[in-house]
Design brief:
Blueprint: H1 11-14, H2 22-27, E1 37-42, E2 48-54, E3 58-59, E4 64-65, H3 71-74, H4 83-88, H5 97-102, H6 112-115, H7 120-123, E5 134-135, E6 148-149, H8 157-166, E7 187-188
């Protein structure tokens, strides 16, 4: 996976995604909330466009799902990630630990499994806390295209800068041009494009 392995390597460096137990799999989520933002898909290009609108079950203060266990029932287009998904879905955020591990990369310095602190994902500017405009239930469909933002689709500069000083092993590749997150079933028409 990443360099040479030792007996003291953490599980994400030594265990294939398919072989992880539930606790290991769930702990890979850094709690950033980027995958819980509403996305639009451009009808002409197929590009995924992120918004600063949270899913109806997203708690913008904690960056967690309000009903994680029942999310797929309450939000039918919520994606329950599998090892196969993270290898084939190009729209996962570039900072997503599932994506990083699937690509054979290490977790960054700010990931709670590395730092031991769930707040480092916020300190690094990766979490969406404080950047969510509203819940999708509070925004009219016609207004959603006005909320398109680019920051969820990029690796945060702050995370890169601090990472260079703190952890030379955990440097991200340049993924600023890749699409991210959960696509909505709603498409963006030509007249709605920004």
């Amino acid at each position: 996976m990443i360099g040479e392995r030792t007996l003291n390597d953490p599980f994400w460096r030594t265990t294939a995604l398919e072989a992880m137990n539930r606790e290991q799999w769930e702990s890979l989520c850094d709690g950033c909330g980027r995958c819980c933002l509403v996305k639009l898909q451009d009808e002409d290009t197929g590009a995924i466009l992120a918004t600063d609108i949270g899913c109806r079950l997203f708690d913008a203060d904690t960056c967690r799902c309000k009903d994680y266990v029942n999310r797929s029932t309450k939000v039918p287009d919520c994606v329950t990630l599998t090892p196969q998904d993270v290898r084939t879905l190009p729209w996962l955020p570039p900072t997503c630990a599932y994506r990083l591990v699937a690509e054979g990369r290490d977790l960054p310095w700010w990931h709670p499994l590395v730092s031991g602190d769930p707040e480092t994902v916020v300190e690094a500017g990766v979490a969406v806390r404080g950047r969510v405009f509203a819940s999708e239930d509070d925004v009219h469909d016609d207004d959603v295209p006005d909320r398109i933002v680019t920051w969820p689709l990029r690796w945060p500069k702050k995370a890169r800068a601090l990472g260079k000083a703190l952890s030379p092993r955990a440097q991200p590749a340049d993924t600023s041009s890749s699409a991210a997150s959960r696509p909505s079933s709603r498409s963006l028409t030509s007249s709605e494009k920004p």
